[in-house]
Write a structure and sequence with these properties.
There is one protein chain. By secondary structure, the protein is α/β, with parallel strands linked by helices. The protein has a domain of 147 residues. The chain is built from 11 helices and 8 strands. The protein has an 8-stranded parallel barrel, surrounded by 5 helices. Strand 6, helix 8 and strand 7 form a beta-alpha-beta unit. Helix 6 packs parallel to helix 7. The protein starts with 37 loop residues before the first helix and ends in a 7-residue tail after the last helix. The N terminus is likely disordered.
Length: 336
């Protein structure tokens, strides 16, 4: 495991508390869940057992009254909020996004696993050094598609630490500068070697952000390596139903999808527009219904399905998850 800088927070946002420091007000409890609406509780009982819905991370103070009972800080929620998050009737998964910025040790993953019930499953993003071909911020590209480093610094800590609560281990590749078809073929050849060299056991998922890569060659590569493509709602990609057709999804593999960002905004624009993420701002019925159709098809085929939703999809990922769950269950024809 690579050493962590002293000023880099853990997955839990741990901060140093000054000795003797006391708050003048009663301390908010990040582990206290909100009082859920009866309709949401009922919806949770109707959602198929192997559909794992969740959000990208959990530490958003704006979710007070929706997920959390108290007004808590982002740091407090990062450290202790997962317990309340996992009590939500619809949340059976969560995206662990902070691992994209630095590797995490087994002990931190075990601590996450200890905060959630038995049926909960995590989707964990791989460290960016493994998926970014260009050097970044004083780092190095030596780890790019390096299976030995992936095993040591990502796969083994996450899989061993989370145990049975480990869901998809996601390799999310950013948009890459692929000058021509030859460059694309070279990337796919290197990706194939990388995926085949990973240890067997975990459920691996791969998400690309280059439209030009989506096609039968990539789909065949995934099928041969035994990994699931991660279909994504993102401006750089075709819609998820097109992705599912062009990649010819393996009918024996669980379905992994992420509802990330509307096509009419950049990430920072959506973040500024939607904060504090406490309500739907721009509903996206087209993406919701497509995700629901694919999830229902996976359930019909006897497969598991993951859908992780970002606040930047519609404005509030907990509210988007509720809309998506209704469409999957097809309440009042919501997914028609």
């Amino acid at each position: 495991m690579a050493a962590r800088d002293d000023d880099t927070p853990s997955l839990f946002g741990d901060a140093i508390e000054l000795p003797g420091a006391r708050s003048a007000r009663p301390r908010a409890d990040p582990s206290a869940a909100a009082a859920y609406e009866a309709t949401v509780i009922a919806l949770g009982t109707q959602l198929p057992a192997h559909v794992h819905l969740g959000t990208s991370s959990w530490s958003f103070p704006g979710w007070r009254g929706v997920v959390y009972r108290d007004a808590c800080t982002e740091t407090g929620l990062a450290r202790d909020g997962l317990t309340a998050y996992a009590r939500h009737p619809l949340f059976r998964s969560v995206g662990v996004d902070k691992t994209y910025y630095r590797p995490a040790p087994r002990e931190e993953f075990a601590r996450l696993a200890g905060q959630v019930p038995a049926g909960f499953r995590f989707l964990v993003k791989a460290w960016r050094g493994l998926v970014e071909p260009e050097p970044f911020g004083g780092g190095s590209s030596a780890a790019f598609l390096n299976a030995a480093i992936a095993r040591r610094e990502f796969v083994e800590p996450a899989f061993d630490g989370l145990g049975e609560k480990c869901g998809p281990l996601l390799f999310q590749f950013p948009p890459m500068r692929l000058a021509d078809a030859r460059a694309a073929r070279e990337f796919l050849a290197a990706l194939k070697v990388f995926l085949h060299a990973l240890p067997r056991g975990p459920l691996y998922a791969v998400e690309v952000r280059n439209h030009s890569l989506v096609g039968p060659e990539l789909g065949d590569l995934f099928a041969e390596a035994g990994v699931s493509p991660c279909l994504t709602v993102h401006p750089t990609m075709p819609d998820v139903e097109t992705q599912s057709r062009e990649l010819a999804l393996d009918p024996t593999r669980p379905l992994v999808m992420r509802w990330m960002l509307r096509g009419n905004h950049r990430y920072d624009e959506a973040k500024d527009l939607y904060a504090p993420f406490d309500r739907l701002v721009e509903p996206d019925d087209t993406s919701r219904d497509a995700l629901a159709r694919l999830a229902r098809a996976a359930v019909t085929a006897g497969l598991g399905a993951w859908v992780i939703v970002n606040n930047k999809a519609e404005g509030s990922s907990p509210r988007s998850v509720e809309r998506l769950a209704r469409a999957i269950v097809d309440i009042d024809g919501a997914g028609a």
